[in-house]
Design goal:
Blueprint lengths: L11 H19 L4 E4 L4 H14 L4 E5 L8 H13 L3 E4 L3 H10 L9 H23 L2 E3 L4 H6 L20 H11 L3 H5 L12 H5 L3 H12 L4 H8 L3 H13 L41
Parallel strand pairs: 1-2, 1-4, 2-3
Helix pairs in contact: 1-2, 1-7, 2-7, 10-11, 11-12
């Protein structure tokens, strides 16, 4: 197989129809009344929000915009608002800085100011808590915005942006999401931004990952189809070490992609041999926050 960008081309119309059908089905099976999405003003969350609105209608698609003071988020908030206004999406803006300040005070012995990654994860988990507070109260699903590139490399926060009910674009590489976003009409300003989780000032995905998404996605594609590491490196004209580093990321972040591991002691252990069909309807207690936690 010859690695090239052509391998990552998608039929955006076909993919869009499949994702819309998936969202409708999962919300229907759950008996939920809509969805809640953390909307950052970035490419992935914008794409997912539009797809949810197509699947369920704008009135059942609630976008929560969750900025905080320590990161330069004003333009991101503006971009998220422009998206919501363009597609008539429901939205609320909740500043999370007071919550983070309280957390710092409660954990003053940890000196979180010097723990950039740790505190970044706390921000992501704070947003997750707010998303679920709304989802539980409104009997809705929390829709994740992670893509295949992020999931493969573990570039997400466990129980943060990874703590969701469904991942509609989770099997699309970042470069494929970009194609889909363009077809869906995501504003050009959002399309042009450098991808960032926005967890601290100046953060960008590609700088943290140490590789561009164009290269990363082709490496991941080669690994997905069992290509030899040496062959991937040779075809892409990059170092073997860089390919090995991506393979290592996949292995060491496996814990992020699975549920908590249970020691098997009984006859039928949940997750191993006691499984419930995914399509089994779930009864939700109205307005009681009983859904998914």
């Amino acid at each position: 197989m010859k690695l090239s960008k052509d391998l990552l081309r998608i039929d955006s119309e076909d993919i869009s129809l499949k994702i819309v059908s998936f969202i409708k089905h999962r919300v229907g099976v759950a008996g939920a009344e809509g969805v809640v999405i953390g909307t950052s003003g970035g490419l992935d969350s914008s794409t997912v929000a539009i797809l949810c609105a197509e699947a369920l209608g704008p009135e059942k698609t609630l976008c929560l915009i969750l900025p905080e003071q320590s990161s330069p988020t004003s333009s991101n908030v503006e971009d998220a608002l422009s998206l919501c206004e363009k597609f008539n999406l429901q939205y609320e803006i909740i500043e999370i800085s007071p919550i983070l300040a309280s957390f710092k005070k409660a954990c003053s012995g940890l000196n979180l100011e010097n723990e950039k990654i740790v505190f970044g994860n706390i921000k992501a988990r704070t947003r997750m808590m707010i998303l679920y507070a709304y989802a539980n109260t409104l009997s809705r699903l929390v829709v994740g915005t992670g893509n295949k590139s992020e999931i493969a490399t573990g570039y997400f926060t466990k129980y943060g942006d990874g703590g969701v009910d469904i991942l509609p674009i989770g099997d699309l590489y970042k470069t494929q999401v970009r194609q889909l976003a363009k077809a869906l009409g995501v504003p050009e300003k959002i399309m042009a931004k450098s991808p960032s989780a926005g967890l601290w000032p100046g953060q960008t995905d590609e700088e943290e990952l140490g590789i561009s998404y164009d290269q990363l996605d082709l490496i991941l594609y080669g690994l997905e189809f069992w290509m030899l590491l040496e062959e991937i490196a040779e075809q892409l004209k990059i170092s073997l070490e860089k390919v090995k580093n991506i393979e290592k990321k996949i292995h060491i972040t496996e814990h992020k992609r699975r549920g908590s591991i249970i020691l098997k002691l009984g006859y039928r252990t949940f997750g191993l041999d006691w499984r419930v069909p995914l399509d089994q309807p779930i009864n939700i207690r109205k307005n009681g926050g009983a859904y998914f936690g």
